[in-house]
């Protein structure tokens, strides 16, 4: 009897071993974690993380505040605009342009307005530099991956209206402090952020003249998803609910204007709403944040970013359940993805094509590049097709390979590899004995994958 | 069924005969100028252009009722046929309409009712409205079974657009002059990425970027003019181009759209100027080229409270080039009174965009069957092409 049992167990083990994929080695696990939960390994980092233990490294990454980041903070301290709030930003960089424009009669550009506009480019320039420096040098790698994810999920295009002056606070005060909290809080903060109110036009929507843009995108893109179960009627009704949510042009802050709010009865997704003020919109945003379709969409997007372009349905279902069970706790939801067998599957290892941002930053990390001047890096991102803060449509950038794999983009990646390896990017220094070999490695097909 | 060979031959004959060619395209007697290759150029106006302010139904009172601040005044519309007229910013294109080399199709669009930019663009590019699982773009499928040449399908864009993704192995590049790897490592890379380099080799030897605009054409500054100038260069350099695609944004006019002047007017001026320059630049070669414009959906008939328009349904397309039966606004027009509108708010779609493209693919590119290009759809040609 005992023998038979042992034989069955042995058989089960044997079939188990043949039917499932071979497990990743410790070294591969470290590399996989550094690639997917960070922007790729620095020289020697795979060995260090493998020696320390991958699980330990991940546990620390999930508590980014526990990781000291003084060197990056010191480096960013020289960027003055990163400290300004919206009011100070508008006062310093935007209002002088408006005043100068008003002072002259025609539309012609004067030296003064040209100079002011030039000066104002510093705002997005420093913000971009900040993203590049953090992603490349911060020890809080997963934090930067999630920043990239959420900034993209709640995309705001720098080219829309005055958004180029509002993005600094949007990223610093709206997105980054809420990436590890509750989804509801993040969603609510973006809904009330001046940057989003301008980008998707809700700031201009009012009782007798509604604008549907934000109402549509919050359901289609930020929460439910396009098949999440809403109709055109819900878009129009939600737009009415959100009338009066606007910005104060002087301070650049959120303001609710009761006189512009439609107090009539509305029904959004079966929820009846009437007679309130800003609380109407808050109620609907909370409702959307906890909707099962939202759980699925956020789960699917996280899995697509971290696991596979077409993530397995079973995985998405489990992650969505964690999202719902935890009241939209983003740390637990992200952890559910990382703890999944699918994340660590052999099929997942080196199976995703890097986005241009992931590619460029991983190349800087792999070469231990010293970035004194981030501008050539920002320019390279533009050439490879992913300028930061430059996605015009509210969808943001794609996390899937087919958006990025084509010969034109490949050639641009190769050119970046050549320029980086041969120290042709001013202010970016790479130490190498063999620039040719390095260029071929960074530009080659293997390095495009993670 | 017409195969490509006989098609080229027969179309070559008609070209020599000159019967179908409008006068503006100086007789294309010498087929060698484009080596007889037919080219289709598609321009996507992303963001949903307000077609009602492009080709204006100025004969309709409901149009003026719905748009108190952004309608194009009757005296500023350039008349086309007594009912429709174009936005004054389209003036550079009017001569082509008058000499019958350009046509518009109005109330055209996708049968899918989505008002999501993303979905609607996706459906228009996959060519399968309502079906999201389609993996490739319809222009890629249109090139399907034919022998691939590296530069037969080119997108003038940084990333590969959905419409050309797929087996056709199209090339996406924002700048044809810079398409190539710098430095001596180029050779080593060639062995790693074969496909990418076939295209660069051809470009290098043909060097289209050296070609200056002809016939006094001046492209307006901006991305569209820049892209169309490069497409013209590729056509003139005979690199084997059959389909070119480019896109231009800035049409999502939710606020401050403007009327005869303003935001949309400025964009249209640049748009029309770029297309007119392209047509002028190609001159006689235009006999082998058809340019078509598309946009994911139209905009609400009624202006919104921000003097703009929201996402709507039916829209307008421009078709311009050799073989086009121009001088006409195609499409069934139901009208703009509330009862005539789609869902009470938008211009109803009466022509499926696949009818227009289907006809162009067959008559311009000699696509033998549209069965795989537009699966489960029966294309009804509207006679836009001769």
Describe the structure.
The complex is a heterodimer of chains A (450) and B (386). With 450 residues, chain A is mainly alpha-helical. Chain A is 56% helix and 4% strand. Chain A is built from 21 helices and 6 strands. Chain A has helices at 2-19, 26-36, 45-52, 54-61, 70-76, 86-103, 111-137, 141-153, 163-175, 183-191, 194-199, 213-222, 232-241, 278-289, 292-306, 313-325, 330-338, 356-366, 375-384, 407-421, 435-443; strands at residues 245-248, 253-256, 266-268, 271-273, 370-371, 428-429. In chain A, the strands form 3 sheets. Chain A has a two-stranded antiparallel ribbon. In chain A, strand 1 and strand 2 form a beta hairpin. The longest helix of chain A is centred in the N-terminal third of the chain and has 27 residues, at 111-137. Chain A is globular, with a radius of gyration of 24 Å. Chain B has 386 residues and is α/β, with parallel strands linked by helices. Helices cover 28% and strands 13% of the residues of chain B. Chain B has 10 helices and 12 strands. In chain B, the strands form 2 sheets. In chain B, strands 1, 5, 6, 7, 8, 9, 10, 11 and 12 form a 9-stranded mixed sheet that branches. A 3-stranded antiparallel sheet of chain B has the order 2-4-3, with no helix packed on it. The longest helix of chain B is centred in the last third of the chain and has 20 residues, at 263-282. The radius of gyration of chain B is 20 Å and the shape is globular. Chains A and B meet through helix 12, helix 20 and helix 21 of A and helix 4, strand 7, helix 6 and helix 7 of B.
């Amino acid at each position: 009897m005992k023998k038979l049992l042992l034989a069955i167990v042995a058989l089960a083990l044997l079939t188990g071993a043949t039917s499932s994929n071979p497990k990743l080695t410790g070294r591969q696990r470290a590399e996989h974690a550094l690639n997917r939960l960070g922007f790729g390994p620095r020289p020697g980092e795979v060995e260090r993380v493998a020696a320390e233990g991958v699980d330990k490294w991940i546990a620390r990454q999930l508590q980014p505040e526990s990781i000291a980041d003084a060197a990056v903070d010191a480096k960013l301290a020289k960027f003055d605009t990163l400290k300004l709030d919206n009011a100070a930003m508008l006062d310093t960089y935007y209002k002088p342009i408006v005043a100068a424009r008003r002072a002259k009669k025609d539309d012609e550009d004067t030296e003064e307005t040209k100079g002011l506009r030039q000066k104002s480019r510093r705002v997005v320039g420093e913000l971009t530099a900040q993203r590049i420096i953090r992603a490349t040098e911060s020890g809080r790698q997963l934090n930067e991956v999630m920043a990239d994810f959420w900034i993209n999920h709640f995309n705001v295009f720098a080219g829309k209206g005055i958004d180029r002056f509002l993005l600094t606070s949007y990223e610093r005060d709206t997105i980054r402090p809420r990436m590890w909290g509750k989804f509801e809080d993040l969603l609510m903060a973006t809904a009330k952020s001046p940057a989003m109110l301008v980008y998707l036009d809700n700031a201009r929507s009012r009782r007798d003249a509604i604008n549907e843009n934000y109402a549509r995108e919050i359901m289609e893109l930020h929460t439910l998803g396009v098949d999440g179960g809403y109709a055109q009627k819900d878009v129009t009704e939600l737009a009415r609910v959100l009338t009066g949510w606007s910005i104060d042009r002087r301070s650049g802050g959120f303001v609710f204007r009761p006189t512009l709010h439609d107090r009539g009865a509305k029904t959004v997704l079966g929820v009846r709403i009437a007679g309130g003020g800003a609380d109407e919109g808050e109620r609907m945003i909370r409702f959307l944040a906890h909707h099962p379709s939202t759980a699925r969409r956020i789960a699917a997007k996280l899995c697509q970013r971290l696991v596979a372009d077409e993530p397995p349905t079973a995985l998405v279902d489990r992650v969505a359940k964690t999202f719902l069970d935890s009241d939209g706790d983003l740390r637990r939801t992200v952890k559910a993805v990382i703890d999944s067998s699918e994340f660590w599957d052999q099929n997942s290892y080196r199976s995703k094509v890097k986005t241009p941002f992931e590619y460029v930053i991983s190349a800087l990390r792999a070469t231990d590049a010293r970035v004194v001047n981030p501008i050539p890096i920002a320019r390279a991102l533009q050439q490879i097709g992913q300028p930061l803060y430059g996605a015009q449509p509210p969808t943001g950038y794609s996390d899937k390979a087919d958006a990025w794999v084509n010969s034109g983009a490949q050639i641009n990646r190769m050119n970046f590899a050549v320029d980086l390896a041969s120290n042709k990017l001013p202010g970016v220094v790479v130490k190498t004995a063999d620039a040719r070999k390095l260029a071929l490695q960074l530009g080659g097909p293997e390095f495009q994958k993670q | 069924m017409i195969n490509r060979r006989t098609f080229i031959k027969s179309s070559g004959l008609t070209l020599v005969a000159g019967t179908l060619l409008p006068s503006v395209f100086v007789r294309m007697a010498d087929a060698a100028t484009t080596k007889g290759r037919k080219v289709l150029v598609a321009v996507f106006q992303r963001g949903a252009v307000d077609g009602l302010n492009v080709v204006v139904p100025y004969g309709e009172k409901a149009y003026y009722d719905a748009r108190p601040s952004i309608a194009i005044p009757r005296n500023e519309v350039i008349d086309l046929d007594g009912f429709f007229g174009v936005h004054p910013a389209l003036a550079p294109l009017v001569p082509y309409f008058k000499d019958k080399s350009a046509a518009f199709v109005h109330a055209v669009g996708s049968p899918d009712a989505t008002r999501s930019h993303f979905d609607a663009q996706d459906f228009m590019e996959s060519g399968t409205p309502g079906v999201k699982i389609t993996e490739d773009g319809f222009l890629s499928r249109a090139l399907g079974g034919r022998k691939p040449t590296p530069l037969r399908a080119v997108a003038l864009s940084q990333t590969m657009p959905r419409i050309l993704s797929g087996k056709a192995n199209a090339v996406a590049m924002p700048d044809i002059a810079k398409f190539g790897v710098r430095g001596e490592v180029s050779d080593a890379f060639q062995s790693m990425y074969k496909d990418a380099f076939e295209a660069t080799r051809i470009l290098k030897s043909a060097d289209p970027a050296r070609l200056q605009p002809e016939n006094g054409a001046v492209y307006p500054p901006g991305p569209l003019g820049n892209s169309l100038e490069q497409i013209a260069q590729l056509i003139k350099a005979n690199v084997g181009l059959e389909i070119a695609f480019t896109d231009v944004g800035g049409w999502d006019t939710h606020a401050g759209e403007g009327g005869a002047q303003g935001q949309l007017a400025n964009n249209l001026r640049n748009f029309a100027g770029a297309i007119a320059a392209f047509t002028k630049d190609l001159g006689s070669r235009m006999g082998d080229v058809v340019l078509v414009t598309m946009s994911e959906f139209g905009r609400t008939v009624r202006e919104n409270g921000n003097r703009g328009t929201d996402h709507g349904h039916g829209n307008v397309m421009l078709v311009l080039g050799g073989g086009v039966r121009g001088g006409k606004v195609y499409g069934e027009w139901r009208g703009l009174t509330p009862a005539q509108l789609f869902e009470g708010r938008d211009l109803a779609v009466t022509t499926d965009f696949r009818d227009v493209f289907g006809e162009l693919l067959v008559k311009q590119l000699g696509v033998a069957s549209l069965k795989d290009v537009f699966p489960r759809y029966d294309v009804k040609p509207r006679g836009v092409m001769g």
